[in-house]
C-alpha cells in the first residue's frame, strides 16, 4: 500500500472532523494544553502545530472567544465557543450526522 | 536557558511582529505544561535529551511558525487553473516561438548555423525562467490580495465543441512548422539574404541560383504561403478536418510537382570563381549539384510517404470518430 497516499487521504479525512471536534469540545472552557489532552483522552490526537493555528482561525471567524488569565503561576489563553460558534456547531453536527448515516448505509 | 526556551525563541523569530508575542506565550504555556506533566510522572526534571524528544515531536521551528501564517500556499486552488493556463500560454506561445524565430533568422545570417542551436536553447531556457518567474509573482500577488478571476464561471455548455472528424494536431508541432515556413518565406521573398560568397580550399567561390528557381518562383511562393495558412489554421484549431487534410494533400501534390520540375532541370546552382580556380569551381559545381539532386530525390520520397500517411490518417480518424460516437450513444 502507498503510505504517502494513505497519509494524504487520512489528513483530508481528518481535517473537517478536527474542526468539529474542537468546536464540540469547547462547549466548555479550555486552554490549549487541556483541550489537546481532553481530545487525546477521547481518542483524537491532534498536534500543536495543527491545534493552535486552528484555534486562531476559528477565533478570527468569530466562532470562538478567548481570554488570557493567570492560572498555576502562568498566563494561559482560555477558549470557549461563542454564540455564533454554538449555532455553527449545531448545523455542522446535523450535517455530520447526515453524512455518517449515509456512509453507514454505503459501507 | 534550556532547549524549550531556545525553541520558543527560534519559532518567534519566524513569526510576524504583530502576533509573535501572543503566539509565543501560548506555545510557552503549552510546552511548559507538557514538560511539567512529564516531570511530575518521572519525579525529576527532564533531561536535555527528553526535552529534545518533546520538541522534535512538534516539528522544526520553521515548520511550527509557518503553520501560524495566514497564507499556506503561494497560489491557492481558486487561481491555480488560471495560473497553469497562463504559464502554458506564455512559455509555449510567446517564449518558444520568439526563441525559435529569432534563432532561425540568426541562423540564416550567421555563417555557423550549428552554433545558433546552443544560443537558441539558452535563450529559450532563460526566457522560460523569466516568464515563469514573472507569471508566478503576478499570480502570487493576485492571490495574496484575494483577487478572484471569474471569466470562466459564465460558460455555456452548449458552446462546447462537437467531436470533429479529424485527428488532433499537436500545437507545438504546428507552431514549429509555422515558424520554419515563415522563415523560409522571408528568405524566398529576399526579405533576408543567405550568404552568397564562400571559400573552398582557399578559392573564392560565388554561388548563383540556376534558372529553374526563377521559373518555379511563384509555385514555390504559393506552396509556402499555403503552408503558412494551413499551419495557422492548425494552431487556432488543433485538429485536422476533412477540408484541412485535403488542403494538406493539395500542398503536397504541388510540392511533388515542384520537386519533379527541379529534378528534371538537373542544374540547381551555378558556381563561379577566378579562372585560376577552374578545377575547384568545376568540382564544386559537380558535387554541389549532385548533392542537391540527391536531396530533392529524398524530399520527393518523403512527400510521397507523407501523402500516403495523411490519407491513412484521414481514414483512421473517420473510423475512430464513428467508434466514439457509437460508444457515447450506448
Keywords:
heterodimer; A: 107 residues; alpha+beta; 3 strands; 65% helix; globular; B: 330 residues; mainly alpha; 3 domains; 11 helices
Radius of gyration of chain B, taken over Cα atoms and rounded to an integer in Å: 34 Å
Distance between the termini of chain B: 74 Å
Which term fits the overall shape of chain B?
A: elongated
Pair with the biggest interface: A-B, 16 and 17 residues
Spatial strand order of the main sheet of chain B? 1-2-3
Major sheet attributes of chain A: 3 strands, antiparallel
**CATH architecture group name of chain A:** Orthogonal Bundle
What can be said about this structure in brief?
The complex is a heterodimer of chains A (about 110) and B (about 325). Chain A has about 110 residues and is α+β, with helices and mostly antiparallel strands.
Task: List the topology elements.
The complex is a heterodimer of chains A (107) and B (330).
Chain A: H1 3-25, E1 30-31, H2 32-41, H3 48-60, E2 64-71, E3 74-81, H4 83-106
Chain B: H1 3-13, H2 17-42, H3 48-58, H4 61-66, H5 80-109, H6 113-144, H7 171-188, E1 197-200, E2 203-209, H8 211-215, H9 217-236, H10 242-265, E3 269-273, H11 278-329
Antiparallel strand pairs in B: 1-2, 2-3
What do these coordinates show?
The complex is a heterodimer of chains A (107) and B (330). Chain A has helices at 3-25, 32-41, 48-60, 83-106, and strands spanning 30-31, 64-71, 74-81. Chain A has 107 residues and is α+β, with helices and mostly antiparallel strands. Chain A has a three-stranded antiparallel β-sheet. The model of chain A has no long low-confidence stretch (mean pLDDT 91). Chain B is mainly alpha-helical. Chain B has three domains: 3-66, no CATH class; 74-160, no CATH class; 169-330, no CATH class. In chain B, 71% of the residues lie in helices and 5% in strands. Chain B contains eleven helices and three strands, in the order αααααααββαααβα. Chain B has helices at 3-13, 17-42, 48-58, 61-66, 80-109, 113-144, 171-188, 211-215, 217-236, 242-265, 278-329; strands at 197-200, 203-209, 269-273. In chain B, strands 1-2-3 form a three-stranded antiparallel β-sheet. The longest helix of chain B is centred in the last third of the chain and has 52 residues, at 278-329. Chain B starts with a helix and ends with a helix. At the A-B interface, helix 2, helix 3 and strand 3 of A face helix 2 of B.
Amino acid at each position: 500500500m502507498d503510505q504517502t497516499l494513505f497519509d494524504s487521504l487520512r489528513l483530508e479525512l481528518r481535517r473537517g472532523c478536527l474542526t468539529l471536534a474542537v468546536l464540540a469540545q469547547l462547549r466548555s472552557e479550555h486552554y490549549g494544553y487541556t483541550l489537546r489532552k481532553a481530545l487525546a483522552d477521547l481518542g483524537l490526537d491532534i498536534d500543536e502545530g495543527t491545534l493552535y493555528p486552528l484555534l486562531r482561525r476559528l477565533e478570527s471567524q468569530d466562532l470562538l472567544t478567548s481570554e488570557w488569565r493567570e492560572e498555576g503561576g502562568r498566563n494561559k489563553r482560555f477558549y470557549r465557543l461563542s454564540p455564533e460558534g454554538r449555532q455553527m456547531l449545531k448545523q455542522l453536527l446535523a450535517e455530520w450526522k447526515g453524512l455518517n448515516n449515509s456512509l453507514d448505509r454505503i459501507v | 536557558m534550556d532547549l524549550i526556551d531556545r525553541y520558543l525563541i527560534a519559532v518567534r523569530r519566524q513569526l510576524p511582529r504583530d502576533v509573535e508575542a501572543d503566539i509565543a506565550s501560548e506555545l510557552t504555556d503549552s510546552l511548559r505544561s507538557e514538560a511539567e506533566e512529564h516531570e511530575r510522572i518521572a519525579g525529576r526534571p527532564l533531561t536535555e535529551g527528553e526535552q529534545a524528544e518533546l520538541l522534535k515531536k512538534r516539528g522544526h521551528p520553521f515548520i511550527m511558525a509557518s503553520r501560524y501564517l495566514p497564507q499556506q500556499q503561494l497560489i491557492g486552488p481558486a487561481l491555480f487553473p488560471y495560473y497553469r493556463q497562463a504559464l502554458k500560454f506564455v512559455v509555449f506561445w510567446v517564449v518558444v516561438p520568439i526563441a525559435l524565430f529569432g534563432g532561425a533568422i540568426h541562423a540564416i545570417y550567421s555563417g555557423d548555423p550549428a552554433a545558433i542551436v546552443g544560443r537558441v536553447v539558452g535563450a529559450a531556457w532563460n526566457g522560460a525562467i523569466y516568464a515563469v518567474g514573472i507569471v508566478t509573482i503576478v499570480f502570487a500577488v493576485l492571490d495574496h490580495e484575494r483577487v478572484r478571476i471569474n471569466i470562466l464561471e459564465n460558460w455555456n455548455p452548449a458552446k462546447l465543441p462537437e467531436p470533429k472528424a479529424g485527428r488532433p494536431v499537436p500545437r507545438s508541432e504546428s507552431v514549429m512548422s509555422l515558424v520554419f515556413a515563415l522563415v523560409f518565406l522571408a528568405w524566398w521573398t529576399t526579405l533576408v539574404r543567405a550568404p552568397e560568397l564562400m571559400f573552398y580550399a582557399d578559392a573564392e567561390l560565388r554561388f548563383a541560383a540556376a534558372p529553374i528557381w526563377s521559373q518555379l518562383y511563384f509555385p514555390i511562393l504559393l506552396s509556402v504561403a499555403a503552408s503558412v495558412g494551413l499551419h495557422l489554421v492548425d494552431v487556432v484549431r488543433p485538429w485536422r478536418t476533412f477540408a484541412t487534410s485535403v488542403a494538406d494533400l493539395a500542398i503536397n501534390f504541388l510540392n511533388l510537382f515542384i520537386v519533379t520540375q527541379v529534378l528534371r532541370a538537373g542544374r540547381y546552382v551555378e558556381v563561379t570563381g577566378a579562372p585560376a580556380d577552374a578545377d575547384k569551381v568545376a568540382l564544386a559545381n559537380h558535387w554541389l549539384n549532385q548533392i542537391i539532386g540527391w536531396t530533392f530525390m529524398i524530399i520527393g520520397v518523403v512527400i510521397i510517404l507523407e501523402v500516403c500517411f495523411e490519407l491513412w490518417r484521414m481514414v483512421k480518424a473517420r473510423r475512430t470518430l464513428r467508434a466514439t460516437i457509437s460508444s457515447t450513444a450506448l
